[in-house]
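Could you join me in thinking about how sequence relates to backbone shape in a protein? To get us started, please write out a protein record for me. Would you write everything just below, so we can both look at the same thing?
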Amino acid sequence: MIYFAIVTGTLFIIALSVFIYRHLKTASDKKIAQQKIVEQHLKEHNERQEYVSSSINIIVKAVDTAQIEVVEASIRLKVLVDQLRPNLPENSFPVMEQVFEKTKHIPKLKDWKALEKKQRKQFSKDLMSLETKHFEAVKAEVKELAQMMSQR
């Protein structure tokens, strides 16, 4: 009778040990899988940030060498800066944001080509007006952005 109790107790202990081992193994596997997912997301985030930073630097150089108009640069940089927002203070570049808001309604790409000549001419006139009005302020903000990017 005592041997039966010892064997039963031993089997119970072995069964519990196997259960605990499997449970810990499953929890460990889940933790490792979650860690891999977090690392993958972090890697993708860093790659995206690097791409955005590179794009910003290219546009900044294009503005410095007058290869791009400041209105177009403002639009492109505003979109890119918004992607860096957690790392940059809100409303860091008010003139670029103002230019972006004033050009939001202007069609782009295929929609631009589909416009009548008269409409395109009017929009071009509006763009040139913004260009002359905000040229110096946008260039100053672009320089400020370049300094911020060099410190990253």
